Amino acid sequence: MVLSVVVTTTDAHRAIDAVWRIESARIIAGLTRIVRDVGLAEELAQDALVAALQQWPESGVPDNPGAWLMATAKHRAIDHFRRNTLLERKHQELGRELEAKQEMAVEDLHTAIDDEFGDDLLRLIFISCHPVLSTEARVALTLRLLGGLTTEEIARAFLAPEPTIAQRIVRAKRTLADERVPFEVPRRPELAARLSSVLEVIYLVFNEGYSATAGDDWMRPALCEEALRLCRILAELAPEEPEVHGLVALMEIQASRSRARTGASGEPILLLDQNRALWDQLLIRRGLAALERAEKLGGAPGPYALQAAVTACHARARLPQETDWPRIVTLYEELAQLTPSPIVELNRAVAVAMAYGPAAGLQIIDTLVSEPSLKAYHLLPSVRGDFLFKLGRLSEARAEFQRAASLTRNARERALLLDRARACSESQLNSGSR
Amino acid sequence: MRFLMLVKHGENPGPPPKDFLDAMAKLGEEAAKSGTMLQSGGLSPIAKSTCVRLSRGQVTAIDGPFTESKEVVGGFAMFELKSKEEAIEGAKQFMELHKKYWPGWEGETEVRQVLGPEAFDPQT
Questions:
Q1: CB pair distance less than 8 Å for B34 and A22
Q2: How many domains does chain A have?
Q3: Is the Cβ pair A229, B78 closer than 8 Å?
Q4: Which domains does chain B have, with CATH numbers?
Q5: What interface predicted TM-score (ipTM) does this complex get?
């Protein structure tokens, strides 16, 4: 059946936009394997996109738009090769023999591009997150090449000027070319370190969306969704890696709470105060299933699986008071052994306080007060203030909440902390003591 | 944005050809690899379904088959996508697959957005 609907220009453009989002990563990945240069591959893919923008509004969107884009990009790649060969020939007087070889190479090119895409996508993920690039560059390049995000969208998400992001991406692509970074899936023993670089980038993108360190937006859901989508892809492409499933689990369960995390006027609602009916049970089920996959693969759980196990303890509790805090304490102890850090200690302190009372929690947190890396970290005084408040030490609690408010960069979180500081004063007035 | 895809067809489309099943399996794999499909499932025949209905103040449970239904929902899938256009593209590819591997099959994929908080945000 032929659709006799008149496709308006805008319709076609919106359809192209959608097709691009669905297909671009696979096209760029397939092309990169052939041309061995991420920058060139992206250019060729963009050329195909431009061709679509010119032709589809006239001809209508083809039945299989992804295949159309791929075929067009493939032709551009072949043209590119031919052009370069011609140039080379002019310079070097190549013989007929070599020409025949080149023809064969073009044939190979056709079959090669039609091969399995999954491995290429995996290679593209690894090259975008290559340690030769700075973390910022890895994030920008990953969102651009794998997320299909425009430079403008990335700039908006990270509150950075567009030229800065554009430059960052250009430089990243140049670095990969200059350093001749191979387009490959790393093998053991290198794999573990390379994979953790990928997971780090993904989780960083997620957290940027989830906890918006700056600005008035408490959440930037697009970044969370993109990180989650990338990690789900990675889990399908590298199913034997428990930490990939661990990170999927961690993010699915954290994302399940997104509707419950903010109130009507956008104010943050802390985990234990959230309306659990708003938690997304579909994402929780997916998260628990991913955690199970990680655990079934065996071995000692890695840092992401451990953090996922903590979030799972919350997800399984229908009511806050049903939370298995002693189990969470154990998980944080394991995590502290694996990746000791003041932040993990801070979380352990919270769990200990919930399991064994605020005094026990305060004991741990008091060892962190002089920790230089937490000096400007608002959650330290915020948590300490909470323990002191529960212990009835209201003046100290108020001072901590005020300190926390002065340290956070998030406007809504600041308001919440100042509210808590005010509540301390009110409690003091009401009780007429301290 | 979350979308529910409802696949509808005549009550007895007959057994699917093997090529179609293979293509479906491949599509399902690719959908999983695209990281956007949250859930999917096929539904039992409508003859085995039960309709619980409220009408004129009476709640009644009626077992299938329902002779009056021309098209039935045979399966569903839930996706997390960036736009409705993306959902429509996905549905088109799904229908193209039917066209190619199951000659004579007729039906439709209904694309419904699952309303989240963003659906009520005037900015989006």
A1: yes
A2: 4
A3: no
A4: 2-120 (3.30.70.1060)
A5: 0.81
